[in-house]
Amino acid sequence: MIEHIELFFKSIFIDNMVFAVFLGMCSYLAVSKKVSTAVGLGAAVIFVLAITVPLNWLLDQYLLQPGALSWLGAEYADYDLGFLSFIMFIATIATMVQLVEIVVEKFSPSLYNSLGIFLPLIAVNCAILGGSLFMQAREIETLGLALNYGVSSGIGWFLAILAIAAIREKIRYSNVPAPLRGLGITFIITGLMGIGFLSFGGMLTGGDEEGEPTTEPRAQIETTQTDEKAKILAENTKIIE
User: Fold this and answer.
1) Which residues neighbour 105 within 8 Å (Cβ) at sequence distance 6 or greater?
2) Which residues does 28 contact at the CB level (< 8 Å), separation at least 6?
3) Rounded distance, CA 217 to CA 31, Å?
């Protein structure tokens, strides 16, 4: 349970897709002019990540890793299909994005029209592919953790685009210098938000795994310093005499 909680909060605040690794910036900048469109795209990203990361975990575990095909028989144990990772991951992502596009067009035509070309472009959104690749690189152990990572990464991206959309709506009424209007001030705000999210870096850090540090090293250091001070004082006294 602790692993799930730690992974959930770490993926949202510490390893945020936008502020930590700057993935998905094209959609983040282009569709963040209104809160309504940002919410729609953010929800679509959460859904796609929640589906594709567990599916790609299954593909990685039972098809792509070295020896993953051993369930087919001993003669397949030496096969390594890792070179197909990008192709398989992108195929899974494209399928899910097509499903999302069909659902949004059916039930919310206004949102579909407002998102425009950026809805099908989720298929090539580097944040979506990055979620699967990070899952593979971090060697997430279980399907439940993979689902947790997909959902939490999507929520982190959702919070990022929602925050910048709300700020951009309010900043229209601010007296921004002409050279910084538009993307200029957006980049500056994004950088400041990234610095703010870095403050969460110590949120999940606990004590040392081997236990609480003892006071013996400090006591030894203090004793050594006291002895050195005594020797220096004794030498100075001899010189004065």
Assistant:
1) 112
2) 18, 157, 160, 161, 164, 190
3) 55
Contact predicate 12/156, CB 8 Å: yes
Model confidence at 215: pLDDT above 50: no
Q: CB atoms < 10 A from the CB of 140, how many?
A: 23
DSSP run (H or E) holding 217: helix 216-240
Euclidean distance between CA atoms 166 and 190, whole angstroms:
12
Q: How far apart are CA 17 and CA 155, in angstroms?
A: 10
For CA atoms 170, 175, 180, 181, the dihedral sign is positive
The pair of three-digit structure tokens given for residue 89, joined into one six-digit string: 């991951």
Instruction: Say if CB 123 and CB 72 are below 8 A apart.
Output: no
Q: For residue 50, what pLDDT is reported? A: 93
Sign of the CA dihedral with 141 first, then 83, 47, and 160 last: positive
Residues 6+ apart with CB under 8 A from 79: 66, 67, 68, 69
| Cβ-contact 130, 48 below 8 angstroms | no
Chain segment 105-121, per-residue pLDDT in tens: 888 888 788 777 777 87
Q: Would residue 198 be called left, alpha or beta, if left means φ above 0 and alpha means ψ between -120 and 50 degrees?
A: alpha
pTM flag (> 0.85): no
Whole-angstrom CA distances from 31 to 8, 93, 177 are 25, 20, 23
> What is the C-alpha R_g of the chain?
26
